[in-house]
Amino acid sequence: MANNIYIYILIMAAVTYLIRVLPLTLIRKEIKNTTIKSFLYYVPYVTLAVMTFPAILSATDSVISAGVAFAVAILLAWFNKSLFQVAVFSCLSVFIIEMIISFLQL
């Protein structure tokens, strides 16, 4: 079968449509099970974390600087710092670690 882009687009559209429509048509009553409710509550956060974490590790020249920045971000977020502070100090930590690594490789 030849690679027909329109077939791929049609299948993708059907799958995307079914994923969005099936829960609306199959589940008509309010969900009362606390386990299912908590699962559905955390799905967006887990999805965001799963998409973000690989990008964090591959965004810098070194995995070491990415790990240090990730640790700094987790530590600052743990102490309830603002998103701006977390971003600035994470970027600064990447900059400093990358400078140290480049200096040591000379």
How would you characterize this protein structure?
The protein has 106 residues and is mainly α. Helices cover 81% and strands 0% of the residues. It is flat and about 60 Å long.
Task: Please render the helix and strand layout as text.
Blueprint: H1 5-26, H2 34-58, H3 63-78, H4 83-105
Helix pairs in contact: 3-4
Summarize the structure.
This protein has four helices and no strands. It has 106 residues and is mainly alpha-helical.
Question: Which key features would you list for this structure?
Answer:
single chain; about 110 residues; mainly alpha; 4 helices
Q: Beta-sheet strand percentage?
A: under 5%
Give the overall silhouette. flat
N to C succession of SSEs: HHHH
Computed CA radius of gyration, to the nearest angstrom: 22 Å
Largest sheet: none
The helix fraction, in percent, is over 70%
**First CA to last CA: what distance?**
55 Å
| Low-pLDDT regions | none
Record field, number of beta strands:
0
Mean pLDDT: 90
Q: What structural class do helix, strand and pairing data support?
A: mainly alpha
How many H/I helical runs? 4
